[in-house]
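Input record (one chain):
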Amino acid sequence: MLENLTARLDRAVKTLKGEGRITDVNIATTIKEIRRALVDADVDYKVAKAVTDEIKDEAIGQKVLIAVKPGELFTKIVYEKLAELMGGSRKDMNLTGAPAVVLLAGLNGAGKTTFAAKLANHIKKTGKTVLLAACDVYRPAAIEQLKVLAEQISVDVYAEPENSSDVVGIAQRAVAYGKEKGFRVVIIDTAGRLAINEELMQEIEAVKKALNPSETLFVVDAMTGQDAVNTAKIFNERINYDGVVLTKLDGDSRGGAALSIRRVVEKPIKFIGTSEKIDGIDAFHPDRMAQRILGMGDVLSLVERAQQAFDEDEARRINKKIRKNQFDFNDFISQIEQIKRMGNIKDLVGMLPGISKELKNIEIDDDAFKPIVAMIQSMTPEERGNPDLLDGSRRKRIARGSGRTIQEVNNLIKQFGEMRKLMRKMNQMSAPKQKLAKMMKRK
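The corresponding structure, as predicted from the sequence alone:
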């Protein structure tokens, strides 16, 4: 996600490291490099110039404390200005209404239908019931695509026969149906439209006027360069949307144009696409994105993903087995599945602060767990539950069954054994503390 921009900004800030103080002379090269990095990442030139001018003005006016190095102070200033460029703080959706209506609009190919399902899944996790409304009557199979995606997340879809063309009427009837059935949120998936197509632009204006939605979101492909900003301006003039959704921000190192939208259109970015998976969206936090762009990690987002992916009952069960030194391969494969639900592995690595550049740039395959899972699944249920049974002949059978080498099987079993020992030690270290805590409660 914006890897090139991260690398360029890192190099730019490094030019100040080792300097005793920030001056007009030593900051000039750094500012110029930051501006080039932003422009190369497709940030609008006027926006890039304004932001770097603000960074320069603030940096020159700062007194560097003895305890703070110029490079560190400058990084803090760049972080604050990047966060400000992208909106400053998180802006939540407005989901008031009975039901709350969320209208999606955007260009062809921006990923609205996929995002509609992702958003439904995101809202459903908060405990609200969601209805998806299929209002794209132009694209072949659009309605069927929405139904398939909705089935994956167990969400209902309101759809009319494909020969229906009254988009405003379909949308109104979908909301009425949602109200009748008691849905808390209705998401309207509309057709993609070009800003130059006056008939379709009038149609989306009419839909918004008829529904008066709680929230109108403009969905844009982050990879479309400066056209993303230009289109965002035109759509905002026509339907005055409430926020922006950036899809496919995970697909390329560019995408900076989308980061200009907040400054140019003055509308907040509310969600970003993080993967093609149905749970591959994140609420957009400008401060966290600024941290990630500067290579500072994003621990809060990582924790939130973990909270969503990990089942509390399962965690308690695993902890109980660890305390009894009964952690086995069934538990191990369960943990792998929960980690995979957190998203793209390379993306997760990027959220860790202090990760070396070398590790960040290594291609980490999302299928890295497959060989491990294959070896575990080649074990019998008895072997998975009791790893001590795995003698030489059993290991050879597992290697043949999983298509891996005997050395890979041996390494897996060895590493698993070491992990169990570490868990046992941690459990032994925590036991005295637990006993002390119980004694204190008794008093």
